[in-house]
TrEMBL record:
Protein name in UniProt: Trehalose-6-phosphate synthase
Source superkingdom: Bacteria
InterPro entries: Glyco_trans_20 (IPR001830)
Alphabetical list of SUPFAM superfamilies matching this protein: UDP-Glycosyltransferase/glycogen phosphorylase
Family in the record: Belongs to the glycosyltransferase 20 family.
Native species: Streptomyces endocoffeicus
Amino acid sequence: MAVPRTAPILVASNRGPVSYTLGEDGSLTARRGGGGLVSGLSAIGPDANAVWVCAALGEGDREAARRAGDSHLNPGDTGGRQVRMLDIAPDVFAAAYNGVANSVLWFVHHLLYQTPVEPVFDAEFAEQWAAYESYNAAFADALAQEAVDEAVVLVQDYHLALVPAMLRERRPDLRIGHFSHTPWAPPDYYRLLPDDVAAGVLRGILGGDRAAFLTERWANAFADCCAAVLGAEIVRDGDSSGDRNRDGHGDGMATAVRFEGRETRLGVHGLGADADFLRERSRRADVDERLSTLRAQIGPGRKSIVRVDRTELSKNIVRGLLAYRRLLETHPEWRERVVHVAFAYPSRQDLAVYRDYTERVRRIADEINEEYGTEGWTPVALHVKDDFARSLAAYRLADVALVNPIRDGMNLVAKEVPVVSERGCALVLSREAGAYAELGEDALVVNPYDVEGTARALHEALRMSDDERADRTKRLAAAATALPPQAWFLAQLGAL
Ligand code: G6P
Protein backbone atom coordinates (compact mmCIF):
# COMPACT_ATOMS: atom_id res chain seq x y z
CA MET A 1 0.00 0.00 0.00
CA ALA A 2 1.39 3.40 -0.97
CA VAL A 3 2.16 5.81 1.88
CA PRO A 4 0.30 9.10 1.38
CA ARG A 5 2.52 12.10 0.74
CA THR A 6 1.89 14.18 3.83
CA ALA A 7 5.13 15.59 5.16
CA PRO A 8 6.33 19.14 4.41
CA ILE A 9 9.48 18.63 6.56
CA LEU A 10 11.45 15.42 6.76
CA VAL A 11 14.43 14.43 8.82
CA ALA A 12 16.44 11.29 8.15
CA SER A 13 19.01 9.76 10.46
CA ASN A 14 20.29 6.30 11.21
CA ARG A 15 19.51 6.50 14.94
CA GLY A 16 16.06 7.77 15.79
CA PRO A 17 14.63 9.41 18.90
CA VAL A 18 13.55 6.10 20.39
CA SER A 19 14.86 2.56 20.68
CA TYR A 20 12.96 -0.52 21.80
CA THR A 21 13.77 -3.59 23.83
CA LEU A 22 11.73 -6.71 23.26
CA GLY A 23 10.63 -8.53 26.42
CA GLU A 24 10.33 -12.31 26.64
CA ASP A 25 6.56 -11.93 26.76
CA GLY A 26 6.64 -10.02 23.45
CA SER A 27 6.18 -6.60 25.05
CA LEU A 28 8.13 -3.62 23.75
CA THR A 29 9.75 -1.03 26.02
CA ALA A 30 10.66 2.33 24.48
CA ARG A 31 13.76 4.34 25.51
CA ARG A 32 15.18 7.66 24.32
CA GLY A 33 18.00 7.27 21.77
CA GLY A 34 21.50 8.54 22.74
CA GLY A 35 24.40 10.49 21.20
CA GLY A 36 24.97 14.05 20.01
CA LEU A 37 22.84 13.75 16.91
CA VAL A 38 19.72 12.67 18.78
CA SER A 39 20.28 15.40 21.41
CA GLY A 40 20.36 18.01 18.66
CA LEU A 41 17.38 16.70 16.79
CA SER A 42 15.34 16.39 19.98
CA ALA A 43 14.38 19.98 19.16
CA ILE A 44 11.91 18.52 16.70
CA GLY A 45 8.83 18.48 18.87
CA PRO A 46 5.39 17.04 18.20
CA ASP A 47 4.22 20.33 16.66
CA ALA A 48 7.02 20.56 14.11
CA ASN A 49 4.86 19.02 11.38
CA ALA A 50 7.81 16.84 10.52
CA VAL A 51 8.29 13.16 9.85
CA TRP A 52 11.49 11.61 11.16
CA VAL A 53 12.72 8.57 9.20
CA CYS A 54 15.24 6.32 10.99
CA ALA A 55 16.49 2.75 10.93
CA ALA A 56 15.55 -0.14 13.20
CA LEU A 57 18.80 -0.85 15.03
CA GLY A 58 18.14 -4.03 16.98
CA GLU A 59 15.60 -6.81 17.45
CA GLY A 60 13.25 -4.65 19.55
CA ASP A 61 13.29 -1.85 16.97
CA ARG A 62 12.65 -4.29 14.15
CA GLU A 63 9.65 -5.70 15.96
CA ALA A 64 8.27 -2.19 16.55
CA ALA A 65 8.88 -1.31 12.88
CA ARG A 66 7.12 -4.47 11.73
CA ARG A 67 4.12 -3.79 13.94
CA ALA A 68 3.86 -0.24 12.55
CA GLY A 69 4.18 -1.50 8.96
CA ASP A 70 4.29 1.42 6.56
CA SER A 71 2.78 3.75 9.17
CA HIS A 72 4.47 5.76 11.88
CA LEU A 73 5.43 4.46 15.32
CA ASN A 74 3.04 4.82 18.21
CA PRO A 75 3.29 8.54 19.16
CA GLY A 76 3.11 7.53 22.83
CA ASP A 77 6.64 6.10 22.44
CA THR A 78 8.15 9.02 20.55
CA GLY A 79 7.15 12.05 22.59
CA GLY A 80 4.33 12.68 20.11
CA ARG A 81 6.63 12.85 17.10
CA GLN A 82 5.84 11.20 13.79
CA VAL A 83 8.55 8.62 13.32
CA ARG A 84 8.90 6.06 10.59
CA MET A 85 11.33 3.30 11.47
CA LEU A 86 12.71 1.31 8.54
CA ASP A 87 12.93 -2.45 8.95
CA ILE A 88 16.06 -3.09 6.93
CA ALA A 89 17.29 -6.70 6.55
CA PRO A 90 19.66 -7.39 9.49
CA ASP A 91 22.61 -8.44 7.31
CA VAL A 92 22.27 -5.36 5.08
CA PHE A 93 21.99 -3.13 8.12
CA ALA A 94 25.01 -4.70 9.84
CA ALA A 95 27.19 -4.35 6.73
CA ALA A 96 26.15 -0.73 6.17
CA TYR A 97 26.25 0.42 9.81
CA ASN A 98 29.10 -1.63 11.33
CA GLY A 99 31.04 -2.33 8.15
CA VAL A 100 30.97 0.92 6.19
CA ALA A 101 29.66 3.71 8.44
CA ASN A 102 31.31 2.92 11.77
CA SER A 103 34.41 0.96 10.71
CA VAL A 104 35.34 3.01 7.67
CA LEU A 105 33.69 6.44 7.31
CA TRP A 106 33.87 7.15 11.06
CA PHE A 107 37.50 6.01 11.15
CA VAL A 108 38.43 8.18 8.17
CA HIS A 109 36.83 11.36 9.53
CA HIS A 110 38.31 10.85 13.01
CA LEU A 111 41.77 9.81 11.73
CA LEU A 112 41.62 6.55 13.67
CA TYR A 113 43.47 4.10 11.42
CA GLN A 114 46.86 2.66 12.27
CA THR A 115 47.92 3.11 8.68
CA PRO A 116 50.86 0.67 8.40
CA VAL A 117 48.35 -2.18 8.66
CA GLU A 118 44.92 -0.61 8.13
CA PRO A 119 42.63 -0.03 6.38
CA VAL A 120 42.40 -3.01 4.02
CA PHE A 121 39.73 -2.69 1.34
CA ASP A 122 39.09 -6.23 0.16
CA ALA A 123 36.21 -8.17 -1.41
CA GLU A 124 34.31 -8.16 1.89
CA PHE A 125 34.40 -4.37 1.94
CA ALA A 126 33.13 -4.24 -1.65
CA GLU A 127 30.10 -6.27 -0.50
CA GLN A 128 29.61 -4.01 2.51
CA TRP A 129 29.71 -0.99 0.26
CA ALA A 130 26.94 -2.50 -1.90
CA ALA A 131 24.91 -2.99 1.30
CA TYR A 132 25.55 0.64 2.25
CA GLU A 133 24.16 1.68 -1.14
CA SER A 134 20.99 -0.35 -0.70
CA TYR A 135 20.54 0.86 2.89
CA ASN A 136 20.78 4.46 1.62
CA ALA A 137 18.33 3.61 -1.18
CA ALA A 138 15.82 2.34 1.41
CA PHE A 139 15.91 5.77 3.07
CA ALA A 140 15.60 7.57 -0.28
CA ASP A 141 12.54 5.44 -1.13
CA ALA A 142 10.82 6.11 2.19
CA LEU A 143 11.52 9.85 2.02
CA ALA A 144 10.30 10.04 -1.58
CA GLN A 145 7.05 8.37 -0.50
CA GLU A 146 6.36 10.61 2.47
CA ALA A 147 7.29 14.06 1.17
CA VAL A 148 4.67 16.48 -0.20
CA ASP A 149 5.57 18.50 -3.29
CA GLU A 150 8.57 20.76 -2.65
CA ALA A 151 9.06 19.48 0.87
CA VAL A 152 12.29 20.19 2.76
CA VAL A 153 14.42 17.19 3.69
CA LEU A 154 17.23 17.27 6.26
CA VAL A 155 19.49 14.24 5.90
CA GLN A 156 21.82 13.60 8.84
CA ASP A 157 25.35 12.25 9.07
CA TYR A 158 27.79 9.84 7.46
CA HIS A 159 25.45 6.87 7.49
CA LEU A 160 23.31 8.57 4.86
CA ALA A 161 25.83 10.27 2.59
CA LEU A 162 24.31 8.84 -0.58
CA VAL A 163 20.73 9.83 0.20
CA PRO A 164 20.75 13.41 -1.17
CA ALA A 165 21.71 12.33 -4.72
CA MET A 166 19.44 9.27 -4.63
CA LEU A 167 16.51 11.33 -3.42
CA ARG A 168 17.06 14.05 -6.01
CA GLU A 169 16.81 11.39 -8.71
CA ARG A 170 13.50 10.18 -7.32
CA ARG A 171 12.07 13.60 -6.40
CA PRO A 172 13.72 16.56 -8.18
CA ASP A 173 11.10 18.90 -6.66
CA LEU A 174 12.41 18.54 -3.09
CA ARG A 175 14.82 20.85 -1.27
CA ILE A 176 17.48 18.65 0.24
CA GLY A 177 20.15 19.39 2.84
CA HIS A 178 22.77 17.16 4.40
CA PHE A 179 24.27 17.77 7.86
CA SER A 180 27.51 16.16 9.09
CA HIS A 181 27.79 15.65 12.85
CA THR A 182 31.37 14.43 12.51
CA PRO A 183 34.60 16.16 11.55
CA TRP A 184 35.57 15.91 7.88
CA ALA A 185 38.90 14.35 6.95
CA PRO A 186 41.60 16.34 5.13
CA PRO A 187 42.09 15.21 1.49
CA ASP A 188 45.25 13.13 1.95
CA TYR A 189 43.60 11.08 4.65
CA TYR A 190 40.22 10.96 2.90
CA ARG A 191 41.91 9.42 -0.11
CA LEU A 192 42.68 6.28 1.87
CA LEU A 193 39.18 5.31 0.71
CA PRO A 194 38.91 3.38 -2.56
CA ASP A 195 38.49 5.91 -5.38
CA ASP A 196 34.90 4.95 -6.23
CA VAL A 197 33.89 5.17 -2.57
CA ALA A 198 35.67 8.49 -2.02
CA ALA A 199 33.94 9.96 -5.07
CA GLY A 200 30.62 8.24 -4.32
CA VAL A 201 30.30 9.79 -0.86
CA LEU A 202 31.06 13.29 -2.16
CA ARG A 203 28.74 12.96 -5.14
CA GLY A 204 26.04 11.67 -2.80
CA ILE A 205 26.20 14.75 -0.57
CA LEU A 206 26.58 17.10 -3.54
CA GLY A 207 23.24 15.75 -4.81
CA GLY A 208 21.65 18.06 -2.22
CA ASP A 209 21.12 21.82 -2.33
CA ARG A 210 23.14 22.36 0.79
CA ALA A 211 25.77 20.57 2.88
CA ALA A 212 26.23 21.81 6.44
CA PHE A 213 28.77 21.17 9.17
CA LEU A 214 29.41 21.90 12.84
CA THR A 215 32.41 24.17 12.24
CA GLU A 216 34.11 26.05 9.41
CA ARG A 217 37.07 23.74 9.69
CA TRP A 218 35.01 20.69 8.68
CA ALA A 219 33.19 22.59 5.91
CA ASN A 220 36.52 23.68 4.44
CA ALA A 221 37.89 20.13 4.64
CA PHE A 222 34.83 18.86 2.77
CA ALA A 223 35.38 21.46 0.05
CA ASP A 224 39.07 20.51 -0.12
CA CYS A 225 38.08 16.87 -0.68
CA CYS A 226 35.61 17.85 -3.42
CA ALA A 227 38.40 19.75 -5.17
CA ALA A 228 41.03 17.04 -4.74
CA VAL A 229 38.87 13.99 -5.53
CA LEU A 230 36.32 15.32 -8.03
CA GLY A 231 38.11 18.36 -9.40
CA ALA A 232 35.08 20.39 -8.32
CA GLU A 233 35.17 24.18 -8.31
CA ILE A 234 35.07 25.81 -4.86
CA VAL A 235 33.46 29.18 -4.22
CA ARG A 236 34.92 31.05 -1.25
CA ASP A 237 33.92 34.05 0.79
CA GLY A 238 34.16 37.21 -1.26
CA ASP A 239 34.78 35.24 -4.44
CA SER A 240 31.90 34.48 -6.80
CA SER A 241 34.04 33.28 -9.70
CA GLY A 242 35.20 30.08 -8.08
CA ASP A 243 38.56 28.96 -6.78
CA ARG A 244 40.80 28.43 -9.78
CA ASN A 245 43.85 26.95 -8.15
CA ARG A 246 41.87 24.05 -6.70
CA ASP A 247 44.49 23.34 -4.11
CA GLY A 248 42.03 23.55 -1.28
CA HIS A 249 43.90 26.42 0.32
CA GLY A 250 41.96 29.42 -0.87
CA ASP A 251 41.64 32.36 1.49
CA GLY A 252 38.11 32.60 2.80
CA MET A 253 35.69 30.01 4.04
CA ALA A 254 34.36 27.72 1.30
CA THR A 255 30.74 28.69 0.66
CA ALA A 256 29.72 26.47 -2.26
CA VAL A 257 30.86 23.58 -4.43
CA ARG A 258 30.18 23.63 -8.18
CA PHE A 259 30.18 20.27 -9.87
CA GLU A 260 28.65 18.93 -13.08
CA GLY A 261 26.51 21.99 -13.63
CA ARG A 262 25.02 22.12 -10.14
CA GLU A 263 25.90 24.19 -7.10
CA THR A 264 25.70 22.91 -3.53
CA ARG A 265 25.91 25.61 -0.89
CA LEU A 266 27.94 25.00 2.25
CA GLY A 267 26.89 26.09 5.72
CA VAL A 268 28.00 26.01 9.33
CA HIS A 269 25.70 25.59 12.32
CA GLY A 270 27.51 25.01 15.61
CA LEU A 271 25.00 23.02 17.62
CA GLY A 272 24.82 24.35 21.19
CA ALA A 273 23.60 23.03 24.52
CA ASP A 274 19.94 23.18 25.50
CA ALA A 275 20.18 25.36 28.63
CA ASP A 276 16.48 25.29 29.58
CA PHE A 277 16.26 21.53 29.35
CA LEU A 278 19.56 20.90 31.14
CA ARG A 279 18.92 23.31 34.02
CA GLU A 280 15.47 21.90 34.66
CA ARG A 281 16.47 18.27 34.24
CA SER A 282 19.57 18.53 36.42
CA ARG A 283 17.55 19.82 39.41
CA ARG A 284 15.25 16.84 39.62
CA ALA A 285 15.20 14.40 42.53
CA ASP A 286 16.90 11.51 40.71
CA VAL A 287 19.88 13.76 39.99
CA ASP A 288 20.00 15.02 43.62
CA GLU A 289 20.10 11.43 44.77
CA ARG A 290 23.02 10.57 42.53
CA LEU A 291 24.79 13.74 43.57
CA SER A 292 24.81 12.57 47.18
CA THR A 293 26.13 9.16 46.18
CA LEU A 294 28.89 10.69 44.07
CA ARG A 295 29.85 13.13 46.84
CA ALA A 296 30.14 10.28 49.29
CA GLN A 297 32.23 8.31 46.82
CA ILE A 298 34.61 11.21 46.20
CA GLY A 299 34.98 12.00 49.88
CA PRO A 300 34.84 15.28 51.78
CA GLY A 301 37.25 18.07 50.83
CA ARG A 302 38.44 16.38 47.64
CA LYS A 303 38.32 17.83 44.15
CA SER A 304 36.97 15.99 41.14
CA ILE A 305 38.07 15.72 37.52
CA VAL A 306 35.04 14.54 35.53
CA ARG A 307 34.75 13.06 32.06
CA VAL A 308 31.61 11.72 30.37
CA ASP A 309 31.86 9.91 27.05
CA ARG A 310 30.66 7.03 25.00
CA THR A 311 33.49 4.49 25.20
CA GLU A 312 34.65 5.66 21.83
CA LEU A 313 38.12 5.45 20.32
CA SER A 314 38.02 9.07 19.18
CA LYS A 315 37.29 10.30 22.74
CA ASN A 316 40.85 9.47 23.82
CA ILE A 317 39.90 8.10 27.24
CA VAL A 318 43.12 6.11 27.55
CA ARG A 319 45.40 9.14 27.15
CA GLY A 320 43.15 10.99 29.59
CA LEU A 321 43.82 8.30 32.21
CA LEU A 322 47.54 8.35 31.44
CA ALA A 323 47.57 12.11 31.93
CA TYR A 324 45.83 11.72 35.29
CA ARG A 325 48.38 9.09 36.30
CA ARG A 326 51.16 11.48 35.30
CA LEU A 327 49.55 14.23 37.39
CA LEU A 328 49.64 12.00 40.47
CA GLU A 329 53.23 11.10 39.72
CA THR A 330 54.56 14.63 39.16
CA HIS A 331 52.36 16.38 41.72
CA PRO A 332 52.20 14.15 44.78
CA GLU A 333 50.39 16.98 46.58
CA TRP A 334 47.22 15.93 44.74
CA ARG A 335 47.29 12.36 46.01
CA GLU A 336 44.33 11.73 48.31
CA ARG A 337 42.99 15.17 47.36
CA VAL A 338 41.44 14.50 43.96
CA VAL A 339 39.29 11.80 42.31
CA HIS A 340 38.98 11.22 38.58
CA VAL A 341 35.32 10.44 37.94
CA ALA A 342 35.25 8.79 34.52
CA PHE A 343 32.00 7.77 32.87
CA ALA A 344 32.66 5.63 29.82
CA TYR A 345 29.34 4.41 28.52
CA PRO A 346 29.07 1.37 26.23
CA SER A 347 29.02 2.12 22.51
CA ARG A 348 29.22 0.09 19.27
CA GLN A 349 29.97 -3.10 21.17
CA ASP A 350 29.42 -5.16 18.01
CA LEU A 351 32.85 -3.98 16.90
CA ALA A 352 35.85 -5.84 18.35
CA VAL A 353 38.04 -2.69 18.45
CA TYR A 354 35.47 -1.01 20.68
CA ARG A 355 35.31 -4.00 23.02
CA ASP A 356 39.10 -4.09 23.22
CA TYR A 357 39.22 -0.37 23.88
CA THR A 358 36.71 -0.73 26.71
CA GLU A 359 38.90 -3.43 28.26
CA ARG A 360 41.95 -1.22 27.97
CA VAL A 361 40.17 1.65 29.71
CA ARG A 362 39.21 -0.66 32.59
CA ARG A 363 42.71 -2.07 32.86
CA ILE A 364 44.44 1.29 33.08
CA ALA A 365 41.91 2.57 35.62
CA ASP A 366 42.56 -0.55 37.73
CA GLU A 367 46.31 -0.10 37.42
CA ILE A 368 46.12 3.50 38.65
CA ASN A 369 43.94 2.45 41.57
CA GLU A 370 46.37 -0.31 42.51
CA GLU A 371 49.39 1.90 42.14
CA TYR A 372 48.17 4.95 44.05
CA GLY A 373 45.02 3.97 45.93
CA THR A 374 44.99 3.95 49.72
CA GLU A 375 42.54 2.61 52.22
CA GLY A 376 40.38 5.71 52.18
CA TRP A 377 41.00 6.89 48.62
CA THR A 378 40.26 5.39 45.20
CA PRO A 379 41.91 7.67 42.62
CA VAL A 380 39.73 6.68 39.65
CA ALA A 381 35.98 6.11 39.89
CA LEU A 382 35.15 4.48 36.56
CA HIS A 383 31.50 3.87 35.69
CA VAL A 384 30.51 2.06 32.53
CA LYS A 385 26.74 1.77 32.88
CA ASP A 386 24.87 4.50 31.02
CA ASP A 387 23.00 6.79 33.42
CA PHE A 388 22.03 10.27 32.20
CA ALA A 389 20.94 11.46 35.67
CA ARG A 390 24.33 10.49 37.11
CA SER A 391 26.10 12.35 34.27
CA LEU A 392 24.15 15.49 35.20
CA ALA A 393 25.06 15.02 38.86
CA ALA A 394 28.73 14.83 37.88
CA TYR A 395 28.36 18.00 35.79
CA ARG A 396 26.96 19.75 38.85
CA LEU A 397 29.85 18.93 41.15
CA ALA A 398 32.85 18.81 38.76
CA ASP A 399 35.82 21.05 39.60
CA VAL A 400 37.49 20.12 36.33
CA ALA A 401 35.99 18.64 33.15
CA LEU A 402 38.32 16.70 30.88
CA VAL A 403 37.31 16.70 27.21
CA ASN A 404 40.33 15.56 25.21
CA PRO A 405 39.15 13.85 22.00
CA ILE A 406 41.58 13.00 19.21
CA ARG A 407 38.98 14.59 16.95
CA ASP A 408 35.33 15.35 17.46
CA GLY A 409 32.66 16.98 15.30
CA MET A 410 31.58 19.23 18.21
CA ASN A 411 31.49 17.53 21.64
CA LEU A 412 28.40 18.48 23.57
CA VAL A 413 29.79 17.48 26.97
CA ALA A 414 32.15 20.46 26.78
CA LYS A 415 29.09 22.66 26.27
CA GLU A 416 26.80 21.00 28.80
CA VAL A 417 29.15 21.07 31.81
CA PRO A 418 29.44 24.90 32.09
CA VAL A 419 25.65 25.20 31.86
CA VAL A 420 24.95 22.73 34.66
CA SER A 421 27.99 23.38 36.89
CA GLU A 422 27.11 24.68 40.37
CA ARG A 423 30.30 26.37 41.50
CA GLY A 424 32.14 26.79 38.23
CA CYS A 425 34.21 24.17 36.49
CA ALA A 426 37.56 24.48 34.71
CA LEU A 427 37.42 22.99 31.22
CA VAL A 428 40.43 21.12 29.81
CA LEU A 429 39.62 20.95 26.11
CA SER A 430 41.23 19.36 23.07
CA ARG A 431 41.98 21.76 20.26
CA GLU A 432 40.73 19.00 17.90
CA ALA A 433 37.13 19.14 19.15
CA GLY A 434 34.74 21.26 17.10
CA ALA A 435 33.75 22.97 20.37
CA TYR A 436 37.25 24.48 20.53
CA ALA A 437 36.22 27.04 17.88
CA GLU A 438 33.65 28.49 20.28
CA LEU A 439 35.07 27.66 23.73
CA GLY A 440 38.84 27.82 23.14
CA GLU A 441 39.32 31.20 24.79
CA ASP A 442 38.10 30.25 28.24
CA ALA A 443 39.24 26.63 28.27
CA LEU A 444 42.69 25.19 29.05
CA VAL A 445 43.50 23.94 25.59
CA VAL A 446 45.47 20.73 24.99
CA ASN A 447 46.94 18.75 22.13
CA PRO A 448 45.13 15.44 22.67
CA TYR A 449 48.20 13.32 21.89
CA ASP A 450 50.35 15.15 24.43
CA VAL A 451 49.90 13.29 27.70
CA GLU A 452 52.52 15.38 29.47
CA GLY A 453 50.85 18.62 28.36
CA THR A 454 47.44 17.30 29.39
CA ALA A 455 48.80 16.43 32.86
CA ARG A 456 50.08 20.00 33.16
CA ALA A 457 46.70 21.38 32.10
CA LEU A 458 44.96 19.24 34.73
CA HIS A 459 47.27 20.66 37.36
CA GLU A 460 46.56 24.23 36.19
CA ALA A 461 42.84 23.49 36.20
CA LEU A 462 42.91 22.13 39.75
CA ARG A 463 44.85 25.17 40.93
CA MET A 464 42.59 27.75 39.30
CA SER A 465 41.12 30.18 41.82
CA ASP A 466 37.41 29.96 42.58
CA ASP A 467 36.78 33.41 41.11
CA GLU A 468 38.56 32.75 37.87
CA ARG A 469 36.82 29.41 37.48
CA ALA A 470 33.41 30.98 38.07
CA ASP A 471 34.14 33.81 35.59
CA ARG A 472 35.33 31.47 32.89
CA THR A 473 32.40 29.15 33.43
CA LYS A 474 29.97 32.01 32.96
CA ARG A 475 31.54 32.94 29.63
CA LEU A 476 31.76 29.31 28.56
CA ALA A 477 28.07 28.80 29.32
CA ALA A 478 27.14 31.85 27.25
CA ALA A 479 29.19 30.64 24.27
CA ALA A 480 27.91 27.08 24.69
CA THR A 481 24.27 28.06 24.45
CA ALA A 482 24.54 30.51 21.53
CA LEU A 483 22.73 28.13 19.17
CA PRO A 484 20.48 25.79 21.17
CA PRO A 485 19.01 22.76 19.37
CA GLN A 486 15.71 24.42 18.42
CA ALA A 487 17.53 27.37 16.81
CA TRP A 488 20.08 25.04 15.22
CA PHE A 489 17.30 23.06 13.60
CA LEU A 490 15.42 26.16 12.43
CA ALA A 491 18.65 27.61 11.02
CA GLN A 492 19.07 24.53 8.83
CA LEU A 493 15.48 24.71 7.68
CA GLY A 494 15.63 28.45 7.06
CA ALA A 495 18.79 28.16 4.99
CA LEU A 496 17.08 25.68 2.65
C1 G6P B 1 27.90 10.41 16.88
C2 G6P B 1 27.35 10.35 15.48
C3 G6P B 1 25.86 10.06 15.52
C4 G6P B 1 25.61 8.79 16.33
C5 G6P B 1 26.23 8.91 17.72
C6 G6P B 1 26.08 7.63 18.53
O1 G6P B 1 27.38 11.48 17.58
O2 G6P B 1 27.59 11.56 14.80
O3 G6P B 1 25.36 9.87 14.22
O4 G6P B 1 24.24 8.54 16.45
O5 G6P B 1 27.60 9.21 17.57
O6 G6P B 1 26.61 6.54 17.83
P1 G6P B 1 25.70 5.30 17.46
O7 G6P B 1 26.55 4.44 16.55
O8 G6P B 1 25.42 4.63 18.77
O9 G6P B 1 24.46 5.79 16.79
